[in-house]
Each structure stands twice: as structure tokens, then as C-alpha cells.
Design goal:
- By secondary structure, the protein is an alpha+beta fold.
- It has a single domain, classed as Lipocalin.
- Helices cover about 20% and strands about 45% of the residues.
- Strands 1-3-4-5-6-7-8-9 form an eight-stranded antiparallel beta barrel.
- Strand 6 and strand 7 form a beta hairpin.
- The longest helix has 25 residues.
- About 15% of the residues have low confidence.
Length: about 140
């Protein structure tokens, strides 16, 4: 086999590995995660123990997870831009890790997630601070 054919085969193999890796990463997102979630509570953690909980009304703070790996949040905090419709970004799922990368340069949010009540409640636990967010399926 000529040198040129070997390079072509090597490049083709690399492209196949990248494509397979990307499809595996996309398939890690459980279908039950996709859709609209209403945050119902946020519990702060201090020294490993719950420190205080804030409860939200339905629609007050929402998270929409799209199948294409993008998200939109609308919440009680005012956006830096008054004409903004909410915060947007991309997310990735790896087993039970859920990472959100905002479009506007905010820091990445890293959570562990689980479902409760037969998939009706999403529980996000901040991997850095321990803060717990509970959200209900809309």
C-alpha cells in the first residue's frame, strides 16, 4: 500500500472514531430529560447540611432542554440585557453528570442529576457547592 493510501486510511479511521464518539455522547442524554422543567425549590448547603430553601411558583424559574443539546432558562433574576428572553447555552450529559455552558461567558454549571417520583421530578445537585435544585415536569 502506498504512503498516500495509508494516510487516507488513517484519516478515515480517525474521522470514524470522532463520529462514533460524538454519537455516543449525544445518545447519553436520557430522553426523559428533554423538555420543559419548572424549578420548584433551591436548597443551599453549608458545611454539608441544608442551610435554607427557596420555593418557586410554577413558571417563575424554568429550564427548557432541547434535544440538540441547547437550553434556555427563564428565572427570577434579572438578565444583564433588559431585552433578553432568558439565558441560553449548551449542555452535556455524561451518565449522571449534567454540565451547562452558558453562551454569554458566565461560568460553567456542573451538576449531578437524578429523577424522582417516576421521572416527574428532576433533582440537580451542584458538584461544587452542593446546592440542590428540584424541578417538576411542565
Amino acid at each position: 500500500m502506498s504512503q498516500e493510501k495509508r494516510r487516507f486510511v488513517a484519516v478515515l479511521v480517525c474521522v470514524c472514531f470522532v463520529a462514533v464518539g460524538a454519537s455516543v455522547a449525544l445518545s447519553e442524554t436520557p430522553p426523559e430529560l428533554i423538555g420543559m422543567w419548572n424549578y420548584s425549590s433551591l436548597t443551599a448547603i453549608k458545611n454539608g447540611r441544608p442551610f435554607g430553601t427557596v420555593h418557586f411558583q410554577p413558571g417563575q424559574w424554568t429550564l427548557r432542554l432541547n434535544a440538540d443539546g441547547t437550553y434556555l432558562t427563564k428565572g427570577p433574576l434579572k438578565s444583564a440585557s433588559p431585552d433578553s428572553d432568558g439565558a441560553t447555552g449548551k449542555y452535556e450529559v455524561h451518565k449522571h453528570e449534567f454540565d451547562m455552558m452558558p453562551d454569554k461567558g458566565d461560568h460553567e454549571l456542573k451538576y449531578n442529576f437524578k429523577f424522582e417520583e417516576d421521572g416527574k421530578v428532576l433533582v440537580l445537585t451542584d458538584r461544587d457547592k452542593g446546592t440542590i435544585i428540584e424541578a417538576n415536569r411542565e
